[in-house]
């Protein structure tokens, strides 16, 4: 596999690539689940967020100015970066320091995680078929649709997947109102930061919003590290920043990135933060890129080319802590809203919801009805880690907990109804499940509801 990836120089197929990696990842995780978990327990027990008075572990404060060490400017990681030596993990870790921690947080009655009004948990509910109000927009009306997500255009005939409404058990979601959403965005920058799942949510948001803006009053910058949709009359932007691992990495080019050898700089979030720091509303995600072991890490204090190796889950915790450190030190919740979107589930194994079957999401037309269904793709240890990190940030960040509600939506993925950039062999074409995308989501569809949840909290 690594040969396969590294031989592809001008990879214009990051999305198909991610998919391929995920299939493999899930397979690996499935077979080595116990080993993986044992290791993870070991990892979490020594990487507590609060530095213990343990002399064995060496904590690093992230975000050092780029050229603090040795007077030499730091090499910036890019897709050509390689590790020419890999050492054992030094047990160094990221230290999350909240400068306001000691101050008495004035009790903000709006609370932090989740809903303001009453105690309704909007993430607990069920899908209700509603073909009068859904979909909230039409696929063919959106000039910014991605060929990766345009399922109808690519031949999907069963369209029920567009007609489901999320109904919380004990309250209603605010109805989507595009004018009202634009009023909330007036004069502001809304920015999504993350991987291709987050990009799907961004495309859904742009498609939801663009319909009421005259064509000559809207624009989209070319696809780049930062891609920007502008609405002139509202003086507002809806942006997407590609940062699949949150911290600086060798995969920060949105088109040419490496999947086989991910290298991160766990103590550097500034490279991306410099792009997102002036946004008014920020929506982050990260998860799937950490699902494959190992991840190489390169500390800023290390000489060029020298790496250490950790498990994906450990790397993710380091990245989350570096990110959290930035949030803790730079976000005033009265001026900036920050959201974190939890893991997006995959549906690679139909036996998980239909024991005895051997497929995946291909051919699925209805959501799962079993309450609390949870598939193997959504790692519970990782969720606990995310929860711990977010809780430490208190009112500075709100959770959009899409995991459970999206778990039900085995019908919501593109499967074969999307563009594949890689030529498909006859063999695979004969077995649609073998190349189905059960990771991303059709738009219109599930990501529209994620955005409706965001709207609910704004
Ligand atoms: C909506 O769904 C109902 C029940 O499935 C069906 O009878 C009706 O024809 C549908 N309407 C439209 C406009 O698709
Ligand atoms: C949508 O929001 C606008 C602006 O806040 C408001 O004037 C309008 O009545 C709302 N529409 C509906 C259907 O609620
Ligand atoms: C547009 O919004 C930006 C903030 O994103 C603000 O700095 C600028 O003054 C606004 N311009 C106008 C004309 O309102
Ligand atoms: C390791 O690679 C870097 C470039 O990434 C190079 O500058 C450095 O000299 C190499 N070190 C050794 C020991 O080969
Ligand atoms: C998201 O919801 C699940 C239950 O559906 C819960 O177990 C998990 O802790 C929540 N995650 C966060 C970060 O709050």
From TrEMBL:
<feature type="transmembrane region" description="Helical">
    <location>
        <begin position="12"/>
        <end position="30"/>
    </location>
</feature>
<dbReference type="Pfam" id="PF14416">
    <property type="entry name" value="PMR5N"/>
</dbReference>
<feature type="domain" description="Trichome birefringence-like N-terminal">
    <location>
        <begin position="119"/>
        <end position="172"/>
    </location>
</feature>
<feature type="compositionally biased region" description="Acidic residues">
    <location>
        <begin position="99"/>
        <end position="108"/>
    </location>
</feature>
<keyword id="KW-1133">Transmembrane helix</keyword>
<dbReference type="Pfam" id="PF13839">
    <property type="entry name" value="PC-Esterase"/>
</dbReference>
<dbReference type="InterPro" id="IPR029962">
    <property type="entry name" value="TBL"/>
</dbReference>
<feature type="domain" description="Trichome birefringence-like C-terminal">
    <location>
        <begin position="173"/>
        <end position="456"/>
    </location>
</feature>
<keyword id="KW-0472">Membrane</keyword>
<comment type="similarity">
    <text>Belongs to the PC-esterase family. TBL subfamily.</text>
</comment>
<protein>
    <submittedName>
        <fullName>Protein trichome birefringence-like 35</fullName>
    </submittedName>
</protein>
<dbReference type="InterPro" id="IPR026057">
    <property type="entry name" value="TBL_C"/>
</dbReference>
<feature type="region of interest" description="Disordered">
    <location>
        <begin position="94"/>
        <end position="117"/>
    </location>
</feature>
<keyword id="KW-0812">Transmembrane</keyword>
<dbReference type="InterPro" id="IPR025846">
    <property type="entry name" value="TBL_N"/>
</dbReference>
<keyword id="KW-0735">Signal-anchor</keyword>
């Amino acid at each position: 596999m690594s040969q396969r990836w590294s031989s592809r120089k001008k990879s214009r197929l990051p999305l198909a690539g991610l998919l391929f990696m995920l299939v493999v990842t899930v397979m690996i995780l499935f077979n080595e689940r116990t080993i993986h978990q044992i290791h993870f327990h070991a990892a979490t027990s020594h990487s507590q967020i609060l530095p213990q008075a343990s002399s064995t572990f060496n904590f690093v404060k992230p975000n050092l100015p780029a050229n603090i060490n040795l007077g030499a400017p730091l090499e910036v990681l890019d897709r050509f970066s390689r590790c020419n030596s890999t050492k054992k993990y030094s047990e160094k870790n990221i230290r999350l320091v909240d400068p306001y921690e000691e101050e008495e947080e004035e009790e903000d009655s709006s609370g932090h995680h989740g809903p303001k009004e009453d105690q309704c948990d909007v993430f607990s509910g069920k899908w209700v078929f509603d073909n009068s109000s859904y979909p909230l927009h039409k696929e063919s009306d959106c000039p910014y649709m991605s060929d990766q997500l345009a399922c109808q255009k690519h031949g999907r005939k069963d369209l029920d997947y567009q007609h489901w409404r999320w109904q919380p058990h004990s309250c209603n979601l605010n109805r989507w109102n595009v004018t009202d959403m634009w009023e909330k965005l007036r004069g502001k920058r809304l920015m999504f930061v993350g991987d291709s799942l987050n990009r799907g949510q961004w495309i859904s948001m742009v498609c939801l919003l663009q319909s009421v803006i005259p064509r000559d009053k809207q624009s989209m910058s070319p696809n780049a590290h930062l891609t920007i949709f502008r609405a002139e009359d509202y003086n507002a932007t809806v942006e997407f920043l590609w940062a699949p691992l949150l911290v600086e990495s060798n995969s920060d080019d949105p088109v040419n990135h490496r999947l086989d050898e991910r290298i991160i700089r766990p103590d550097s979030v500034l490279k991306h933060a410099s792009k997102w720091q002036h946004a008014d509303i920020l929506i982050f995600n990260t998860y799937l890129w950490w699902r494959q072991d190992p991840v190489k890490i390169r500390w800023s204090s290390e000489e060029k080319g020298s790496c250490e190796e950790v498990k994906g889950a450990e790397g993710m915790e380091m990245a989350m802590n570096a990110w959290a450190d930035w949030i803790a030190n730079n976000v005033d919740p009265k001026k900036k809203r920050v959201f974190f979107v939890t893991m997006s589930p995959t549906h690679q194994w139909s036996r998980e919801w239909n024991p005895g079957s051997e497929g995946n999401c291909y051919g699925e037309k209805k959501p799962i009805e079993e309450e609390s269904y949870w598939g193997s793709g959504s790692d519970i240890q990782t969720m606990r880690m995310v929860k711990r990190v977010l809780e430490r940030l208190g009112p500075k960040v709100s959770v959009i907990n899409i995991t459970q509600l999206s778990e039900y939506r085995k019908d919501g993925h593109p499967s074969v109804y999307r563009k594949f950039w890689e030529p498909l062999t006859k063999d695979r074409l004969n077995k649609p499940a073998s190349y189905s995308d059960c990771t991303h989501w059709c738009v219109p569809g599930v990501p529209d509801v994620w955005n409706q949840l965001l709207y609910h909290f704004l």
